[in-house]
Write a structure and sequence with these properties.
heterodimer, A: 345 residues, alpha+beta, Cyclophilin, 3 domains, seven-stranded mixed β-sheet, six-stranded antiparallel β-sheet, 7 helices, 22 strands, 20% helix, disordered C terminus, B: 243 residues, 2 domains, seven-stranded mixed beta barrel, four-stranded antiparallel β-sheet, 5 helices, 14 strands, hydrolase (chain A), Biotin-dependent carboxyltransferase (chain A), Cyclophilin-like_dom_sf (chain A)
């Protein structure tokens, strides 16, 4: 057994996995990773099941130290500078920390959540099939709360497997796609159009429960109270003040505000990774398109193992660039995406 | 063959869930249909349904669009949802102890004043009620009850409280509630129960189910302390009787 010690970490960082399913009927929400594709990519890199428990790191920096042996980890999600003892580590790659070595991650450079998966996965006591932290319900293992410096995980000793990178599918761009409903009939055509045609920003007061949207006030047809009914990840409810809230993974399981639309499954991670203050729009799609995208999204996760590549080409390139003291190296090192593309065989 | 019931509305809740809506208002008949459909779907073998969430007036059905599409699922749900209701079967009934008033029910006096009666009358009316768990939601174990005495119907507080204690027994609008965890609330707090409707390392983790019947009885504050300790240690402390 090795240990991975949290040397430093910012707020909004916690253990998350595929979520806790089957108890929403008792008021227990699903929790789980805000960006499932990135969680799955990080896990795939170190040979774990796609939705195994990993560390979801919020927008601030973090560092992790291997103790009592080597630990193999991988990072995916919101891009950031990362290094081990001064050697840069690319996003979407695995890396083995020798005993005593520290992986240091900078602030997210766009997006919010980066996933650190550990070979062999995080171990703990599952409740309703999940280790995900749900602080309000006192759930999550091994720590039922956001992570703090000094927390540590008992993990498998590194296997010594060759390091890998993962060539992720090109992320979708453009508007966040929604399906109107279930209560779009609580809004007139003008207000539905206002919702779909306006520019929105995510408020800085957003969290894993919900993303508050800043933009024009959306007016209800019959007032803002409906009899509570069930919510899903991505439900966009409109409370009395007209400022919509997109419900995220720690949402209440039921809610009493009309829900104008629902973010499609394939775009929830994209919404989760939209930084506070960045302008974006919504676009209504048909049920057929939304379900087609949901199936493609599920397929993309299933096919992640086919997207693994040996990462030594990347490492060689960095060394070559570094040795040659190429001016572009610094820029390339900051933008992981740039030099991954050039490293494609 | 008995006539079928009017069909519910099938409202898309994104690409992986459908809200099967029987009514737009709180309506006991609609809630019965919700709970009947919930049971029927659990007993059915519709491939792709992953989880169901009953509420007052609708059943939220989560499904996997990889296994079944929206239209195909709707075609399977509708005939089940329009079946005549099965005869009412025996429900579980919970007798829930409540320490009313004082520090445990800080709104009891105000509720009595607002409704022009005495705190004792409020306690008699609240504990005399025969309730049904219409839904569980918001936070783990938060049981929303139908069957509140009409005399006790009153609008919620103007400004919700940021934090109300675990075990709070409260009323809001036409509803009564059993709250398990400390949480914000705009309801009127009548008392507290030592009963945990949700407790992690207890079997069962969740005590109440939608459809269960509930009655309350008053206990003094000393008894509350004793039962609270027992409950903390994992005892259920609610009495279960057959309805």
């Amino acid at each position: 057994m090795s240990r991975l010690v949290v040397a430093s970490i910012g707020p909004a960082s916690s253990v998350q996995d595929g979520g806790r399913h089957g108890a929403q009927r008792y008021g227990l929400t699903v929790s789980g990773a805000m960006d499932r594709l990135s969680l799955a990519a990080a896990n795939t890199l170190v040979g774990n099941e796609p939705f195994a428990a990993a560390i979801e790191i919020g927008p601030f920096g973090a560092s992790f130290t291997a103790r009592d042996g080597a630990v193999r980890v991988a990072i995916s999600g919101a891009p950031r500078n990362a290094d081990v003892a001064g050697s840069p580590v690319a996003m979407d790659t695995s890396v083995t920390l020798k005993d005593g070595e520290t992986l240091t991650l900078g602030f997210a450079r766009g997006g919010a959540f980066t996933y650190l998966a550990i070979e062999g996965a995080i171990k703990g006591e599952k409740v309703f099939g999940s280790l995900a932290v749900n602080a309000r319900a006192g759930l999550g293992s091994p720590y039922p709360r956001p992570l703090q410096a000094g927390d540590e995980f008992d993990v498998d000793a590194a296997s010594g497997a060759p390091e890998l990178r993962i060539q992720l599918p090109k992320p979708a761009t453009g508007p966040i796609r929604v399906l109107l409903g279930p209560q779009d009939d609580e809004f007139d055509e003008a207000n539905k159009a206002l919702f779909l045609n306006s520019e929105w920003k995510i408020s800085a007061t957003s969290d894993r429960m919900g993303y508050r949207l800043e933009g024009p006030a959306i007016k209800h047809l019959h007032g803002h109270n409906i009899v509570s009914d069930g919510t899903v990840n991505g439900s966009i409810q409109v409370p009395g003040n007209g400022a919509p809230i997109a419900l995220m993974m720690d949402r209440g399981t039921s809610g009493g505000y009309p829900k104008i639309a629902t973010v499609i499954t394939a775009d929830i991670g994209r919404l989760a990774q939209t930084s506070a203050g960045t302008a974006f729009r919504f676009k209504a799609v048909s049920m057929a398109e939304a379900q087609d995208e949901a199936r493609k999204f599920a397929q993309a996760i299933r096919s992640l193992p086919d997207r693994l590549r040996a990462s030594d080409i990347v490492a060689l390139n960095i060394e070559a660039l570094s040795d040659a003291n190429v001016a572009g190296y610094a820029v390339s090192a900051v933008d992981a995406g740039t030099w991954q593309v050039t490293a494609e065989p | 063959m008995a006539a079928t019931l009017p069909p519910p509305r099938l409202l898309p809740s994104g690409d992986s869930a459908v809200t099967v809506e029987f009514s737009r208002t709180i309506d006991d008949d609609a809630n019965q249909r919700v709970l009947a459909l919930d049971k029927a779907l659990a007993a059915s073998s519709i491939d792709g349904i992953t989880e169901t969430v009953p509420t007052y007036r609708s059943l939220l059905v989560h499904y996997d669009p990889d296994k079944i599409g929206f239209d195909a699922l709707g075609e399977k749900i509708l005939p089940i949802a329009t079946r005549p209701l099965p005869p009412v079967t025996k429900a579980r009934r919970w007798r829930i102890p409540v320490a009313y008033g004082g520090e445990h029910g800080i709104d009891l006096e105000d509720v009595a004043k607002t409704l022009g009666t005495t705190p004792d009358d409020i306690v008699a009316r609240h504990s005399g009620g025969d309730y049904k768990v219409a839904m569980i939601g918001f936070t783990p174990g938060w049981s929303y009850l139908s069957g509140l005495d009409k005399f006790l119907h009153m609008s919620r507080r103007q400004s919700p409280r940021v934090l109300t204690p675990a075990g709070t027994i409260s009323i809001g609008g036409v509803q009564a509630g059993i709250q398990c965890l400390a949480a914000p609330s705009g309801w009127h707090l009548l008392g507290r129960t030592p009963v945990r409707t949700y407790q992690l390392h207890r079997n069962p983790t969740f005590l109440t189910e939608p459809g269960d019947r509930v009655t309350f009885y008053a206990i003094d504050h000393k008894t509350f302390e004793d039962m609270d300790r027992a409950a903390e240690a994992g005892e259920i402390v609610a009495e279960q009787v057959d309805a």
